[in-house]
Design goal:
Layout (H helix, E strand, L loop, with lengths): L3 H6 L5 H13 L2 H9 L6 E4 L5 H9 L5 E5 L2 H14 L4 E5 L12 E5 L7 H13 L7 E6 L5 H16 L12 H10 L2 E7 L8 E8 L2
Parallel strand pairs: 1-2, 1-4, 2-3, 4-5
Antiparallel strand pairs: 5-7, 6-7
Length: 217
């Protein structure tokens, strides 16, 4: 069985990414949630805003064997993702630097976009969701993790952490703007997708939601 420590070791000798991976995998329910959302779906996967590529490792550990492609605007993260994937021996995995404001990759299959939408303007959020939906093959899924614009203390904490991540340089983009559920739900419906919204907080204080969408019928 592959453990969080096993995955994190692929990022050595870099201590920063090693400890980031250890803490992220230990505390964030994201990877189990996305893995469960993709169970039984063997379409090629595009990971939009892949960061250092942790999703590729966790999905391979769950038995996901389809082609995986990750894209991110941050060249340093892509370099770390490539090195870790090579060290771990991940097959049929590739990573590329890409600015979504300028381009969108050609893809046909399933798409994940995790913790990205809140860092782009609302108009760009809608365009990215449109582009992701256009990539879906029959039977494939669109999986989104994002905060949602809702009243309450969870969003205040989420916004504070996202702003801190941006100031540290870990995330690149505008100050966080969280999608509104009703707008995102309506957009997905207009694209012919049926969406399921589920809280994905685990033991964290954050206003995080997992959205899984598929073609109607």
């Amino acid at each position: 069985m592959t453990t969080a420590r096993d995955i994190a070791r692929a990022y050595l000798p870099g201590q920063y990414h090693y400890w980031y991976a250890r803490s992220k995998l230990a505390s964030d329910p994201l990877y189990d949630g996305v893995g469960a959302a993709l169970d039984g779906c063997d379409h090629p996967l595009l990971d939009v805003g892949c960061g250092i590529g942790l999703l590729a490792h966790t999905l391979r550990a769950r038995g996901f064997r389809a082609d995986y492609a990750g894209v991110d605007i941050d060249a340093r993260k892509i370099e770390a993702a490539r090195a870790a994937a090579a060290k771990a021996g991940l097959a049929r995995v590739r990573f590329d630097v890409l600015d979504l404001a300028a381009d969108f990759p050609a893809h046909r299959g399933t798409v994940c976009i995790l913790d990205v939408l809140q860092f782009v303007p609302r108009s760009t959020q809608a365009r990215i969701v449109d582009a992701c939906a256009a990539c879906l093959a029959p039977g494939a899924r669109l999986v989104i993790r994002t905060g949602l614009e809702r009243d309450g203390w969870r969003l205040r904490i989420t916004r504070a952490i996202d702003r801190f991540s941006e100031r540290l340089g870990w995330m690149r983009g505008d100050p966080p703007r969280y999608p509104r559920r009703e707008a995102l739900e309506a957009q997905l419906a207009q694209l012919g997708l049926v969406a399921r919204f589920e809280p994905l907080r685990g033991r964290t204080p954050f206003e995080n939601w997992l959205v899984t969408a598929e073609r109607a019928g």
